[in-house]
Design brief:
five-stranded mixed β-sheet; about 35% helix; about 20% strand; alpha+beta; globular
Length: about 650
């Protein structure tokens, strides 16, 4: 009798939750829900042996895990290409129509949250995972279970994966920041950051307190459930009690798509959650299959991003930052202002020439926006608002940290502090070495690195690998403990196995960015080989020009740098390239390619595909050109290739050959 009542209560509460979160049509009041919930809690306390894993009470945060388990997605969670204006919307439609005669589209609001994959086995939730890099994500099941809109069990005993977005409603975000402000804690910049931070908590009680929610929109293998369209897919997920966004339309043509975008561009502030655009998908799955994928994104879907917002604020002061290379960068301190979902209080001013060109003065009212909806930048000075009390900009002559006289080279727009012992330069170098694209020393944030530097535990990058000898002292520091220090030291130890390109990038060799580090590492295979390379040899390598070659040679002839490298060798770091080797291919190896027209993938990505398979890419068509890859509106290069009888591949053929050579 007790078990039957508990089953009834679970059924009532799950139904009520679905009606409230998914249908927005609650059939019972909040008070009734609370009463049923309290009754269920009481029965579960009295009869713990009868507690069901899919009970709504299991959403109360209780689980604390040691760390995040890695999850490999059976089917990659691909990203979408972005477009930003009406012409690009129409261009997407034109490309689709080359393959599909009369396409219709499903338009969905682009939720500004965190992508999630939910896996159910026999109708029970068994895993929630982040997107990660698209192939490998993190297991966040313990936090996903606390989200009220995520069903722990489905009305059908099926095995299925669904994907969507975890987000934080605006009201929850405002409440959370108010609470954090009252506690003297740092406020979150925007709801997306708050949501992402919440689902990456080891203690699920924190996630439970954040009032997160979800919208689901995709089944990777929808055809296996006899689904024939995206519209059917959304309805099927609704029937399974998942929360699907209600503001979705089935557009008969691209004009209706544009109308939908125009409407939400105006009305987005009225929504109780943040959106940053609209996702456009070809509706029929059969048509999606015909359109296929590039190496990175589907050709049947695109993300329209709303234009960046532009706001006014006052420039209160200009300060100067010292980078790891000694470069001095002016930074504007602003009156804090909300911009595209973030609070902006500073913005880079790049260099002296930039400031003079825009005629920026301290005290000016300036307009700023986010370039690409990401990086804040100055648009213009509102000179009509000047009062006469503004202060002209004066470039400093000495380093603000060490006092060394600054130098501006003839070929540079920036000034540099050339003192190798400047504290700011050393700290920035240590931060760079630990960064994600370099040695990826997890847990070493800027504040920790600066603290360890000031405490004399870190001075040069090789000092990371002697931190274990200070373990006892480090775990006595305020804010640290045995577990946190152990995690830091484990991260350092794990970094010894990184491939050579990460180390090269982390060393901070001037002009050697992430891409060039890969080129050098894959070419020379070991650090010792690279250290012996001459300037004349280096400049023969594609994409390694004179400036990079000179910088590499200078770095490895410096005695301090050589001493540091020998210490790293002593500490057991890997000095070999263990990344992907170039693949020899009959279609690509030894051939010269030219890319022309508008491709569906970035030019740089197409170039990397060719070079990885042994080919090279040049900018002009000559008699030595082997193949011309043609996108939309190819122009004169295409005509010249035809006149010379050069092999021409349409983009589809090119991508097919890439696929065959995997």
């Amino acid at each position: 009798m007790i078990e039957k009542r508990m089953d009834e209560l679970i059924k009532i509460l799950n139904k009520a939750s679905y009606e409230y979160h998914t249908l927005d049509m609650p059939s019972i009041s909040d008070q009734e829900y609370d009463d049923y919930y309290a009754e269920l809690v009481k029965l579960e306390v009295e009869h713990p042996n009868l507690v069901r894993p899919d009970s709504p009470t299991m959403k109360v945060g209780y689980e604390v895990i040691e760390g995040f388990e890695k999850v490999t997605h059976e089917r990659p969670m691909m990203s979408l290409d972005d477009i930003f204006n009406e012409e690009e919307i129409r261009e997407f439609d034109r490309k689709v129509r080359k393959v599909v005669a009369n396409p219709t589209y499903v338009c969905e609001l682009k939720i500004d949250g965190l992508s999630v994959s939910l896996l159910y086995e026999n109708g029970k939730l068994v895993r929630g995972a982040t997107r990660g890099d698209g192939t490998t994500g993190e297991n966040i099941t313990h936090n996903v279970k606390t989200i009220k809109s995520v069903p722990l069990s489905l009305p059908e005993d099926i095995t299925i994966e669904v994907r969507g977005e975890i987000y934080m409603p605006k009201a929850s975000f405002e409440s959370l920041n108010k609470e954090r402000k009252e506690k003297g804690e740092k406020e979150f910049a925007n709801p997306r950051n708050a949501a992402a931070g919440s689902v990456r908590q080891l203690d699920s009680s924190i996630a439970a307190s954040r009032n997160l929610s979800t919208f689901l929109y995709h089944i990777p293998n929808a055809v296996d459930y006899h689904i024939t369209s995206q519209e059917e897919c959304l309805n099927y997920m609704k029937n399974l009690t998942f929360t699907v966004n209600p503001n979705i339309i089935h557009a008969k043509n691209i004009e209706e798509v544009i109308e939908y975008i125009s409407y939400w561009q105006i009305h987005r502030p009225e929504l109780p959650y943040e959106i940053d655009g609209v996702v456009i998908k070809v509706d029929k799955l059969q048509d999606q299959n015909r359109l296929g994928f590039t190496a990175r994104v589907p050709k049947w879907a695109i993300a329209y991003k709303f234009p960046a917002e532009e706001v006014l604020t006052q420039l209160k002061n200009i300060e100067f930052c010292v980078g790891r290379t000694g470069k001095i960068t002016p930074r504007a301190d602003l009156t804090p202002v909300h911009l595209a979902g973030s609070i902006i209080s500073s913005v880079t001013l790049h260099n002296e020439d930039y400031i003079k060109e825009k005629d920026i003065k301290i005290g000016d009212t300036i307009s700023i926006h986010k370039a690409g909806d990401v990086i804040p930048e100055v648009v213009e000075v509102k000179k009509e608002r000047r009062t006469g009390e503004e202060i002209d900009f004066q470039m400093i002559t000495h380093c603000p940290i060490c006092g060394t006289e600054l130098v501006r080279k003839e070929s540079e727009a920036a000034y540099f502090c050339l003192n190798p012992n400047c504290d700011a330069r050393k700290i920035e170098g240590l931060i760079h070495f630990a960064s994600r694209d370099a040695m990826n020393l997890d847990g070493f944030g800027e504040n920790i690195i600066e603290d360890f530097y000031n405490m004399k535990y870190l001075h040069t990058v090789d000092d990371y690998y002697t931190l274990y000898s200070h373990k006892e002292k480090l775990q006595e520091l305020e804010g640290f403990g045995e577990k946190s220090i152990t995690n830091l030291l484990d991260s350092v130890e794990n970094s010894k196995n990184n491939s050579l390109e990460r180390l090269l990038f982390g060393l901070g060799i001037r002009h050697v960015g992430k891409k060039n580090a890969v080129i050098l590492a894959s070419y020379y295979k070991t650090l010792d080989n690279l250290m012996k390379a001459s300037y004349e040899e280096l400049i023969t390598i594609p994409d390694i020009g004179e400036i990079i070659a000179e910088s590499v040679v200078n770095y490895f002839t410096n005695e301090e740098n050589k001493t540091c490298i020998e210490k790293l060798r002593e500490y057991g770091l890997n000095f070999s390239y263990i990344g992907k080797e170039k693949k020899e291919s009959t279609d690509f190896s030894g051939k010269t390619f030219v890319l022309t027209g508008t491709l569906s993938i970035p030019r740089e990505e197409a170039k990397e595909m060719i070079e990885f398979r042994g080919g090279k890419v040049t900018g002009s068509v000559t008699s030595k050109t082997s193949v011309v890859v043609v996108g939309d509106s190819p122009g004169s290069k295409y005509e010249k290739a035809k006149s010379l009888g050069i092999t021409i591949w349409e983009e589809e053929e090119f991508l097919q050959k890439v696929q065959e050579e995997r």
